[in-house]
Design goal:
This protein is of the alpha/beta class. It is 36% helix and 18% strand.
């Protein structure tokens, strides 16, 4: 029976996509094991690349929808995925409300909005999906997902009954939330959110304080935005009976995590776990002899939510050894091997290869490093 190897890398950011990395690893395996049964299963931690990885795994297609961007009056072409059977939509919020869509000199979370994210959700509902996966990394916003909810028909009004403007600062004037016009189709759809942070909506570890400055918020803005999200959270509880102020991950993407819970009944989960669940990774592990994973860099935080950690955890449940090719390592190679986290590990950057060379020649180096892993795997297999 041929050796079955599951190849499941994340992207090597700045060098290769997850699909390209998987193909390079496959080449390395086949040069030493030409008869191997190889199953390529590129992964994502829920951030950049989520749409491509999950859509491909589900045999789907990429759809482009013109939606509102994060800035007032801005329009953007946002890509999202639709599974081959039309039941699943895959959305990255950054496609509609990401920080990369806002020039550095115009970044201001007081006015940026998630309205376009709601338009993408609406497009998915129009397509007739029963499940939606949403990655919420890389946001330019701090509006608690109010813009997203508004696009789904929710009204946010001030004390005079006038509709609020969009953006994080507008939430300071919220007096009531009217859900009578909400698109009820969302209530019959499972919404899974890939969320790798535990920050709550408000406070010193909240959305505004931790992430506001990188989105353009000044010190005075952070205080204002935090008060606005607190008012938003209290209004959500008063109007919907949903307490989002203490939800772990509610502060993700400027509070979009909380908004998705409140208005879409979403479940927040670690990004890699969402990806592995919806792409059927566990099924692909059946009968595997070895798993090869990898990503651009591993450090001490790798065990706490990065793509490699999810792959390792699932493989260990099946007692399958895991080897990894990575761009670079923080610390020593042995620190990841001695405690049994990985069974083998090869970095691209070493005493002979600079980080610049590794970035430039990532594909060739991944092929070579994978061959080293396979050679050692075969040595262990036949010498034991």
């Amino acid at each position: 029976m041929p050796t079955k190897i599951v190849i499941a890398p994340d992207s090597f950011k700045g060098s290769l996509t997850a699909h390209e990395a998987a193909s390079a690893m496959e080449q390395g395996v086949l040069q030493l094991l030409p008869d191997a049964h190889i199953l390529k299963h590129p992964v994502s931690d829920g951030g950049e690349g989520l749409v491509g990885v999950v859509t491909s795994a589900l045999g789907g297609c990429i759809v482009t929808t013109n939606v509102s961007g994060p800035l007032p009056g801005q329009r953007v072409d946002a890509r999202w995925g639709l599974s081959s059977d039309g039941s699943f939509a895959i959305i990255e919020m950054a496609e509609a409300a990401g920080l990369t869509l806002v020039p550095a000199d115009r970044r201001d979370p007081k006015i940026t909005t998630t309205y376009g994210v709601g338009e993408l959700i609406r497009a998915a509902l129009d397509a007739g999906v029963s499940s939606i996966v949403i990655g919420i990394g890389g946001s330019a916003t701090n509006d608690g997902g109010a813009g997203m909810a508004e696009a789904l028909g929710v009204r946010f009004v001030d004390a005079s009954g006038k509709a609020l403007g969009r953006g994080g600062a507008a939430l300071l004037d919220i007096a009531a939330i009217d859900t009578q016009g909400k698109d009820v189709r969302i209530d019959n759809v499972e919404v899974l959110v890939a969320c790798d942070v535990q920050n709550t909506l408000c406070g010193i570890q909240g959305a505004s304080a931790v992430y506001g400055p990188q989105k353009g918020a000044r010190l005075s803005d952070v205080s204002l935005l935090d008060k606005a999200l607190l008012r938003f959270g209290k209004s959500v509880h008063a109007s919907l009976g949903v307490d989002v102020l203490d939800v772990a991950g509610g502060g993700a993407a400027g509070g979009l995590g909380a908004g998705l819970v409140a208005f879409c009944g979403a479940t927040l989960k670690r990004g890699i776990d969402v990806v592995l669940q919806v792409t059927g990774f566990d099924d692909h592990l059946q009968g595997a002899d070895l798993v090869i994973t990898g990503e651009g860099r591993i450090d001490r935080q790798v065990r706490f939510g990065k793509a490699i950690s999810g792959v390792v955890e699932q493989a260990k449940r099946h007692n399958i050894p895991v080897a990894a090719v990575v761009g670079s390592i923080e610390g020593s190679r042995e620190s990841f091997l001695n405690d049994g986290f990985l069974n083998d590990l090869e970095p691209l950057v070493d005493v002979h290869t600079s980080s610049e060379e590794a970035m430039r020649n990532a594909q060739t180096l991944i092929v070579e490093r994978t061959k080293l892993l396979i050679q050692r795997y075969l040595n262990r297999k036949y010498n034991n």
